[in-house]
Design goal:
By secondary structure, this protein is α+β, with helices and mostly antiparallel strands. The chain has one helix spanning 26-41; strands at 46-48, 59-61.
Length: 73
């Protein structure tokens, strides 16, 4: 897994409509894992793919109580 750079407003990609994804393949699964790692690294509860520079309709979200022993995977 990798921690990705989070884009900040007013980056132009944050204003674009994200593309739908079709088939969930290994590249999408890896992106979701990287986004999850990035979200946790930033102490966030959610992250959209466009926030890491990927123009796809994907989000990761974890609103469970803080537990260092538990994550999304």
């Amino acid at each position: 897994m990798a921690v990705l750079e989070i884009l900040k407003y007013p980056h132009p990609l944050l204003k674009k409509r994200s593309q739908e994804i079709g088939k969930v393949d290994e590249n999408i699964r890896q992106l979701i894992q990287d986004m999850t790692e990035t979200m946790y690294d930033a102490n966030g509860v959610g992250l959209a793919a466009c926030q890491v520079g990927v123009n796809k309709r994907i989000i990761v979200l974890d609103v469970s109580p803080m537990d260092p022993e538990q994550d999304l995977f």
